[in-house]
Amino acid sequence: MNNILTIDTEEAFLRQKSLMIHSKNEEQVIAQKLIEILSQEKDALGLAAPQIGCHKRVIAFKNAKLNEQNELEYNQIMVLFNPAIEKKYGEVNSNEQCLSIPGLSGLTKRSMRICISDKYGFYKLDSLMAIVVQHEIDHLDGILFIDRAEEIHSIEKEEPYGTE
Ligand SMILES: [Zn+2]
Question: Which residues of 69-108 are buried (b: 16+ CB within 10 A; e: fewer)?
């Protein structure tokens, strides 16, 4: 079992804004924990520090893309420290779920492409990764996808690709 906080019992915690991270030691500890937990969550693409009980601006996401068979391929897990969205382009509808909100999915509007910065550099992301990172950065500001979603559906755990 992992230690991911959910809104059932920890909504107040998840709603708080996270603080900038400065200490390199702290960066390592949080990054390691995020990577460990996210790598065990087969169906999840991202995780933010507040979800594991830490109000620091750190997110992790799986560098995934669709292959020619239209299947997701995962590469390594990336971690960003103090990430910020610098530019956004376009708009997409995204059907999102969240480890902190079991049982619900929501149709949410996101930017199609984003330029982001973090403590160590600049990155351009598009499609799925752009969506995941927008979702995770929201967590750092206490925002959840259910706040943005235009439609919310309940999902059956047994059917990850369930018809609404
Ligand atoms: Zn989430």
Answer: eeeeeeeebbbbbbbeeeeeeeeeebebbbbbbeebbbbb
Distance 141 CA to ligand 1 centre (A): 12
| CA 34 and chain centroid, separation | 11
Q: Which of 136, 156, 158, 164 is catalytic?
A: 136
Please tell me the pTM assigned to this model: 0.89
> Is-catalytic flag, 158?
no
Tell me the CA–centroid distance for residue 23 and ligand 1, in Å.
25
b/e for 110-120, b at 16 or more Cβ within 10 A?
A: bbeebebebbe
The CATH code for residues 7-154 is 3.90.45.10
Q: What is the pLDDT along the chain (164 residues), one digit of tens a residue?
A: 568 999 999 999 999 999 999 999 999 999 999 999 999 998 899 999 999 999 999 999 998 667 788 776 776 899 999 999 999 999 999 999 999 999 999 999 999 999 999 999 999 999 889 999 999 999 999 999 999 999 999 987 655 554 44
